[in-house]
Amino acid sequence: MLGYHQLQNAVTATCAALCLRWQISDGSILSGLENTQLLGRNQFLKKEELDALGLSGSMALLDGVCQDSMLVLVVAMASDKDHVGFAWEFLTGLSFEAIFLTEVNIAGDKSRTTSALFLRDIWAEACSNLGVKFTPENSTYDLKLLDASVPCTGNSTTTILGASSSVIRCLKASHKVLQERKGKQPGTIVVTG
Prior knowledge:
The protein has helices spanning 4-19, 26-35, 47-52, 83-91, 116-130, 146-149, 167-181; strands spanning 59-60, 70-75, 98-101, 134-137, 159-163, 187-192. It is α/β, with parallel strands linked by helices.
């Protein structure tokens, strides 16, 4: 895994194991450090954060996903993550009304950010390979009013797949999709990466 902070994390984990006097051999610690992978990391939005973004009435993923809830996924990822594996994990067993790919600064910098368009291509291929029906929103990238351009009505068995460099635009589009599709059913925006 990339990043100086990952070295600090490895040292912390090793010290914790040694301080707790767990019966872990040096070889096991070394093997664990050499083979550690991280598909991605979840970032949870609190109610106050959703309200501040003007997304009141949406739910945030807090501890697992409600199976009865309509889901919209917003994904941003660092360049050193397993993009394909991450997409497959989410698309296997879960159904989404929409998936929006976006970009964020990683450790205050864009240099490790994966482009939203690249992520959209990976997720489109994963959808195709897994038989997930999707509608690519090729026209949504970097539109100033992404949330106003997303078609929300129609067959909700088809996942909308879009990309924007703006997290805010993706969240607003997510909110619109849920508001228009969910009816009385609960909806959840899952923000991850």
